[in-house]
């Protein structure tokens, strides 16, 4: 089986590759691509792989742009922390939709499904029905965490979720910031945190930042359909919401 991974996080690529080879040592990861442009260029110049594993958020945009720019005949397994793109994901030749953090058992089930469909339909692999998709997402959704354990010097503290103002990445460390401005390192990735926090209260602004709804102290229109945020407590970095995230952010604020 020839597989191509489209994912912009190096650790995620490494983890996926190891899980794929654990599933089937004969499996060949033919390429690992990190952006929309790189994926389009590769797909235009190479034979279609047997399977694509695609993260929805890439370094230069959403993966759906790939399917607008090049014909993709390969079936796809999507991987992402965001379930709001699920219906759009299944408008292509999708086998499954996995929410991060991906567990080996879940990936193995998706690969089993792909092989079973491949044996029955040559080509293409049919799309999963939307009602099946809803069941999949609900089955993968975790219970929201009410508190997080953090290190405070030599002590360990329990921080309630409603005490969190935002969580951001700084020099490869994820820092939880409370409403009173205290900062604590956390061991979870932002992808994992997005699954643990109540999506009615928390929003992932970009790859480096997740905010609580009450921390958005100021919201200003910005260039090219983007928004600029002022946070409380103040954060010493510019907070910009991209044009593709702006409608989702406004919808979230208006819930």
UniProtKB/TrEMBL annotation:
InterPro entries: CheY-like_superfamily, LytR-like, LytTR_DNA-bd_dom, Sig_transdc_resp-reg_receiver. It comes from the Bacteria. Keywords: Phosphoprotein, Plasmid. Residues 2-115 form the Response regulatory domain. It holds the Pfam family LytTR. The modification 4-aspartylphosphate is found at residue 55. GO terms for molecular function: DNA binding; phosphorelay response regulator activity. PANTHER family: STAGE 0 SPORULATION PROTEIN A HOMOLOG, TRANSCRIPTIONAL REGULATOR-RELATED. This is LytTR family transcriptional regulator. It comes from Rufibacter tibetensis.
């Amino acid at each position: 089986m020839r597989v191509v991974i489209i994912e912009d996080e190096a650790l995620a690529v490494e983890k996926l590759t190891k899980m794929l080879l654990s599933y089937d040592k004969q499996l060949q990861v033919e390429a690992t691509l990190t952006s929309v442009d790189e994926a389009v260029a590769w797909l235009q110049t190479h034979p279609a792989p047997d399977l694509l594993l695609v993260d929805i958020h890439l370094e230069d945009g959403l993966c759906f742009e790939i399917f607008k720019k090049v014909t993709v005949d390969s079936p796809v397994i999507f991987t992402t922390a965001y379930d709001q793109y699920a219906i759009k994901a299944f408008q292509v030749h999708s086998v499954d939709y996995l929410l991060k953090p991906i567990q080996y058992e879940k990936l193995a089930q998706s690969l089993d499904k792909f092989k079973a469909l491949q044996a029955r339909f040559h080509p293409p692999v049919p799309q999963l029905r939307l009602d099946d998709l809803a069941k999949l997402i609900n089955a993968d959704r975790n219970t929201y965490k009410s508190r997080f354990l953090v290190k405070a010097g030599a002590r360990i503290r329990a921080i309630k979720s409603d005490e969190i103002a935002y969580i951001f990445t700084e020099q490869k460390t994820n820092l939880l910031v409370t409403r009173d401005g205290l900062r604590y390192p956390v061991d979870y990735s932002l992808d994992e945190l997005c699954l643990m926090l109540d999506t009615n209260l928390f929003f992932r602004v970009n790859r480096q930042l997740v905010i609580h709804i009450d921390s958005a102290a100021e919201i200003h229109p910005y260039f090219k359909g983007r928004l600029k945020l002022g946070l409380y407590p103040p954060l010493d970095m510019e907070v910009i919401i991209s044009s593709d995230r702006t409608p989702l952010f406004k919808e979230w604020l208006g819930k």
